[in-house]
Amino acid sequence: MTTFVDRVTLYAAAGKGGDGCVSVKREKFKPLGGPDGGNGGRGGDVILIVDPNVTTLLDFHHSPHRKATSGHQGYGDRKDGHQGEDLILGVPNGTVIYDKDGEQIADLIGNGTTFVAAQGGFGGLGNLALSSSKRRAPGFALLGEPGEERTLILELKSVADIALVGFPSAGKSSLIAAVSAARPKIADYPFTTLVPNLGVVQAGETRFTVADVPGLIPGASQGKGLGLEFLRHVERCVALVHVLDCGTLETDRNPVADLEAIENELALYGGLEDRVRIVALNKIDLPDGKAMAEMVEQELRDKGYEVYSVSAASREGLQDLIYAMGRLVHKNRVEAGVPERTRIILRPVAVDDSGFTVRANADGSFTIRGKKVERWVRQTNFKNAEAIGYLADRLAQLGVEKELYKKGAVAGSEVRIGDGDTEVVFDWEPTIEAGAEQLAGHLHRRGEDSRLESTWNMPERVENVLTDDEIAKQWEYNVVDPHTPKLSAPIITDADTTEENQEDGDDK
């Protein structure tokens, strides 16, 4: 049984973000010192990276479900939870990634190329991060977001410069074994090669790779044989080498007919019309094979093909074929030049983009969609009334209530936020202010909490008020307001001034 797998389905699940912590600092002589709950850790990502030591997708065939670790919840004493570890998976060079609908997402070429298959969820904020001058002691924290879950199709397209195509038993495996160090299975029966083989060939200063594709037969486009299943491995090649069997014992076959049949299957597959074709007339070491090659060589040249007569067994003519392939590869590399660095395209959000949409449904309900509002819903602990009030405040501040009113929503209208398992359904009450502390049942005003040492606003200073007995004792003083101890300025008369001067004169 072959161990080569070039198409698998991957179920990638990223780690969940840790929940925020609800905590109040407690110390000696300071039992309620304010919120100190830390944030939750971020969930781990599922990352695909091109690994040169990986040549097949067999691991994903046996274990298609992969999941990263989740982040830990926050701790008290202002400590954040640790993050989840990323799950890094190695894939072969040339792996193409499709979504479950068949749309191509990424093409991983080059060792070290990475792709985030599933992104980990963000950790929730603790009550320390949620506290402010108006929310002194939040009794709630945000939940961590769930990790992303995606179903991806991984398809391997070999990164080869030259592809050998032809009928079964045409000698493709023998040819790649003769020109490279590859050692594929070689036998004298059809469909010996069940998987593509790669070999590295040196032509002067040019080094390139050659791919041996399993044999094509007429009707491959309708599912016959093995060739159509592996034709994806020739899509990246610079040129195609038709390996034609000149020593076949089948009387109804000849090199020209074989070439036309293979070209017909390639045309039905599509996408290979611009590839350069080279014809290799194989098995000229056999007497009948050499005679057949001499008969059809000129006819193939007249059709516009570059023809080489070779023998994989005796290695006759292989040098000319190798250098012909090397010239095509070198020419293609020169024309390609140095690849330009990928430009980073920034797409800012439009000025009039509110970040959410409100849709009126036919049944009288309303649906709210948007990444921000849906993320807020996932972060809300609906078992905590204060957390629900905080969500309502955020939605009102974003303008959701105003948009609902514009769409015709009235009190009691059914409103849905999100979609699927995370959808939240509630009856809209536009006249009720969404205050977190009011919904939680607290008697104090918003921004205050009885668990703190002191209230937010300083109490007004009340002046001392004298009792009736104290007021009776103030008769000898000139008091403007007898209820307070403040004295008015003394009143000086002319008689007092004359008496004072007389006393000064007597002393003198």
Q: What this model shows, in words?
A:
The structure is a single chain. This protein has 508 residues and is an alpha/beta fold. The chain has 4 domains: 156 residues, Distorted Sandwich (Spo0b-associated Gtp-binding Protein, Chain: A); 175 residues, 3-Layer(aba) Sandwich (Rossmann fold); 84 residues, 2-Layer Sandwich (GMP Synthetase, Chain A, domain 3), CATH 3.30.300; 40 residues, no CATH class. It contains 13 helices and 18 strands. The chain has a 6-stranded mixed β-sheet with strand order 10-11-9-12-13-14, sandwiched between helices. A 5-stranded mixed β-sheet has the order 3-1-8-5-6. The protein has a 4-stranded mixed β-sheet with strand order 15-16-17-18. The protein is elongated and about 145 Å long. The relative contact order is 0.09.
